[in-house]
Write a structure and sequence with these properties.
Elements (H helix, E strand, L loop, with lengths): L2 E5 L5 H10 L3 E5 L10 E4 L4 H10 L3 H9 L4 E4 L1 H6 E4 L10 E6 L9 E8 L3 E9 L3 E5 L4 E6 L2 E7 L2 E4 L10 H18 L1
The chain binds glutamine.
Glutamine binds next to helix 4.
């Protein structure tokens, strides 16, 4: 069975656990660094990226998370989690974990559209997926090695780079678990490759 962790320091953790279980995998709420070793994949949830960063530092998660990424273990950042994975952040000199070749702008949809839903077409996950955007970031630009999976209007809202996945929206808050299932599939593939 595939085991997917959800970084449990802050943010929308419980919803991800439900979505992972509904996708047929085992879910683990990760609160200690040692737990990373048992995972086939890790979700960085939505929440507040600056708060999450503070807690990542406080509990000694930064290096272990970078190591996890270095080993190319599957990681999925949703909303604030996408901000954590980006190598470039508009208006900031330094990234957080900084492993995806994308430039992300925080709170990019503006005040009037703080929160909204949109039907999205997502490569690999399907059509008419209701994306829930909450003070969402978006991807301003990507390098050639990054695959754009979904756009909303002229904005990139879902990307994949190897074993890393990121979405501007929260895929875990509705009963449609296709995006989580897509990530579980990535973790399955990565695990199968390792065994051979
Ligand atoms: N605006 C938040 C941030 O900058 C992200 C919002 C979310 O994760 N729903 O961290």
């Amino acid at each position: 069975m595939i085991t997917i962790g959800v970084l449990g320091l802050q943010g929308a953790v419980r919803e991800h656990v439900k979505a992972i279980e509904a996708s047929g995998a085992k879910a683990v709420v990760v609160k200690k660094v040692e737990q990373l070793a048992e995972l086939d994949g890790l979700i960085l949830p939505g929440g507040e990226s600056t708060t999450m960063r503070r807690l990542i530092d406080k509990y000694g998660f930064m290096e272990p998370l970078r190591q996890f990424a270095k080993e190319e273990k599957p990681m999925f950042g949703t909303c604030a989690g996408m901000i954590l994975l980006a190598k470039h952040l508009v208006g900031y000199n330094e990234p957080h974990i900084g492993v995806m070749d994308i430039t992300v702008e925080r709170n990019a949809f503006g005040r009037q559209r703080e929160s909204f839903e949109a039907a999205l077409s997502i490569k690999g996950a399907g059509e008419e997926f209701i994306g829930v955007f909450i003070r969402a970031p978006y991807v301003v630009s990507v390098d050639d090695n990054v695959e754009v999976l979904s756009v909303h209007g002229d904005r990139i809202v879902a990307v994949r780079q190897g074993n890393f996945l990121a979405t501007s929206f929260h895929p875990e808050v509705t009963d449609d678990h296709r995006v989580t299932a897509y990530f579980v599939g990535m973790a399955e593939e990565a695990k199968a490759k390792k065994v051979v």
